[in-house]
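Regression test case RT-17, inverse folding.

Input:
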């Protein structure tokens, strides 16, 4: 990251204070100032793309004292005594507490924090959809990392291939989790209505070459009476892509 870009990103951030629900330590979570992250576009799997700063890097509250982490979207949800015990036994006791706090996060910094958040969500048996959503955020971060990779760096192609492999690995985790949550949770799921959710699952199935599943999920959107015109338009485009691959009219 260039010095100019680093400075611009630093100026777009402030520290928001939280209290860790596991060890009661003060957490300073870097947060993007209102208006500093302007939405530029949205990827086909709903990943938001921002101008100047990737706000997705700053979406986790992470405790450097004990290793507990959570997406900001879910951080305020109560942590039960059983969940605290599980985190203490399986996260805190194995955490070395050596992470530094850089002025801005590299993708490596952010991915590491998101992986701690995913570990915490798994250990405390958070809803499967939350685990899936966290995995999806990690996949998006790997995508951003690949897009920002310096083409002139030695071994560029090999590094990019590795990053894309990690992105696909976490897309697979997200896909599996979301499919499970559809039958076990009520809508809205992670803030998504049913049509948006089914579109996303179809897209993730398509990316992981589960073409029959992708076709089944997208058909639910196309035939839905509740889906918005925007989601239906995206669904028709995705269905066309699916049909091209599986060779059907």
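Golden output:
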């Amino acid at each position: 990251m260039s010095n100019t870009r680093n400075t611009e990103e630093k100026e777009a951030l402030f520290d928001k204070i939280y209290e860790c629900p596991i060890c009661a330590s003060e957490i300073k979570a870097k947060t993007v100032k209102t208006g500093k992250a302007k939405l530029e576009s949205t990827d086909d799997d709903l990943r938001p793309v921002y101008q100047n700063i990737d706000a997705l890097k700053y979406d986790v509250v992470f405790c450097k004292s004990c290793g507990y982490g959570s997406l900001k979207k879910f951080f305020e949800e109560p942590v039960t005594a059983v969940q605290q015990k599980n985190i203490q036994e399986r996260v805190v006791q194995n955490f070395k507490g050596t992470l530094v706090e850089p002025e801005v996060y590299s993708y490596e910094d952010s991915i590491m924090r998101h992986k701690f958040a995913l570990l915490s969500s798994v250990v405390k048996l958070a809803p499967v959809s939350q685990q899936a959503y966290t995995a999806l955020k990690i996949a998006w971060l790997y995508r951003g990392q690949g897009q920002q990779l310096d083409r002139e760096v030695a071994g560029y192609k090999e590094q990019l291939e590795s990053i894309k492999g990690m992105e696909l690995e976490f897309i697979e985790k997200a896909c599996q989790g979301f499919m499970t949550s559809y039958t076990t949770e009520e809508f809205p799921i992670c803030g998504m209505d049913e049509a948006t959710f089914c579109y996303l699952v179809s897209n993730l199935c398509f990316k992981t070459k589960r073409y029959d599943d992708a076709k089944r999920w997208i058909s639910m959107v196309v035939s839905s009476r509740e889906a918005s015109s925007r989601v239906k338009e995206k669904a028709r485009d995705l269905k066309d892509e699916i049909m091209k691959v599986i060779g059907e009219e």
